[in-house]
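Late entry, written up from scratch paper. The run itself happened at the end of the previous shift, but nothing got recorded in the book at the time, so transcribing now.
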Amino acid sequence: MKPQSISHDNGTSTIEFPSICPRCHHAVSPLYKAGVLVAPDILSLSFQCTNCKELFVSKYFLRKLVTSEPLEFEKVVFETEIEDTSPTFVEIYNQSLIAESKSLNQLTGIGLRKALEFLIKDFLVYKKPEDEVNIKKTQLSRCINNYIDDSRLKKIAERATWLGNDETHYVRKWEDKDITDLKLLIKVAVNMIHNDLLTEKYLSEMKN
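Output as recorded:
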């Protein structure tokens, strides 16, 4: 969206309007309503979404958009194969997003780490039911190393675990990574697991 000039209580500013509504999550060209200069470098602007018609507030630092609130929860719907294999993963993942929508950022990463463990272990139990007892009681990193056969999935799951552990530790190891990176790695792992499950399904259903 192109920068626009707006008039507010303390003068005129040229800023870029938000392009996504934090309430309905649609791409929009919001209607500017009012603005207040909170501090010399901080500006708060209120907008109306052209999709859901609700009001929201965007905060700017040095005329750059920092955040838009309130951020409302948007449930992630996973493929049937993922839902069937690890329903607890789906539940915990979406609960983590609820925490994120309420700005409970310290809890979001912890929840995502727990969701990841259920995803990986449930998948491994499905693939190796004879090892179910050991998989369930083994530390996640060891499960990944000992039971995942696909080398690429093993590397992705390993890195997602690294970032997930950072969310639970006092000192962060990967300071240049954050929850966004963790969610992306989980997404990649989900896609790889889904592909594996689909491959197995169709190879089983369509034999010569």
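Helices lie at 80-85, 87-101, 105-127, 132-137, 140-147, 151-166, 179-205.
(Scratch paper discarded after transcription.)
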